[in-house]
Amino acid sequence: MDRITILETKERILAEQNADGNKLRGELTDRRVFFVNVMASPGAGKTTLLVRTIRALTEQGYRVGVMEADVDSAVDAETVRRETQARVIQLHTGGSCHMDADMTARGIDRFGIEDLDVLFLENVGNLVCPAEFDVGAHLKVMLLSVPEGDDKPLKYPLMFEVSDILLINKIDTAPVFDFDFAACEERARKRNPEMEIHRLSALTGDGFDSWVAALTDRIRAFQAETAHQ
User: Per-residue pLDDT tens for 38-88?
Assistant: First the structure.
C-alpha cells in the first residue's frame, strides 16, 4: 500500500505569516515608526494600560497612533479616543481570534502613519492565537492581570515565550487574590529567560513609571538606530 502523504499545513501557514511579519517590520523600520503589539486576555486591562501609556508618551512629545482589534464593536477605540490625544482606528477581524501581518498591513494602509512616531496594536483578547502570528511589531508586550492567577505561564507557554515584556497588572487587587508574584515570574522566565517583567496597576498608576521608562528607552534606541537610514 502506498504511504499516505501528510502535509503540515499549519507549519507552512505560520512560515508564510512570519515572512509577512518580517516584511512589514522592515517597512515600518524604514518609515521610522516603532510598532508595539499588546496582547492579553479579555479584561486584563489592555485599554486602561494604553490610555495611561499614551498620555505619558504624549507628554514627552511622541506622536502616537492606536489600532484597536476586536471581533466586533468599537468600545475600546471610543475609550482611547475620548481619553487621549492619539489617533485611533477600529479593526474588526470578522470573527478571527487574532490579527496577522496581512490584516495589520491593510489596517496601517487605511490608517496612515506618516505623522506617527509610535503605533500600538491592541490585539484580540486571548492568550492563544495572538501568540502564533507575527504582526510585524518591534516589541511584543504581554499583559497578565492578578485576578487571572499566577499559573498562566504553565497553561499558555507560547505567549510567554514570544513576548519581550511581561506586565503584571492590577497589583492593587493582590490583597484579594491568591497570586504568587515570585512563582509567576519564575515560571515566566523558565519559558523566556530574557523576558523583562514589570509589576504595575494601570488603574492607580502604581509601578507605571518603570514600564514607561522601559518603553521610552526602546523607542529612543529605535529612533537612534534608524536616524541615518
Answer: 999 999 999 999 999 999 999 999 999 999 887 666 788 888 899 998 899
With CA atoms as reference, report the closest residue to 129 among 215, 198, 37. Answer: 37
Query: Which class is 33-222 in CATH?
Result: alpha beta
DSSP string, 81-130: HHHSS-EEEEEE-TT-SS--HHHHHHHHHHH--TT-SEEEEE--S-SSHH
pTM over 0.85: yes
Domain ranges of the chain: 33-222
Q: What is the pLDDT of residue 15?
A: 58
Q: How far apart are CA 32 and CA 68, in angstroms?
A: 21
Q: Could you tell me the end-to-end alpha-carbon distance of the chain, in angstroms, rounded to an integer?
A: 59
**Cβ–Cβ under 8 Å, residues 163 and 193:** no
Decide if 45 contacts 130 (C-beta within 8 A): no
Q: How many CB atoms lie within 10 A of CB 177?
A: 13
Helix (H) or strand (E) holding 132: helix 129-132
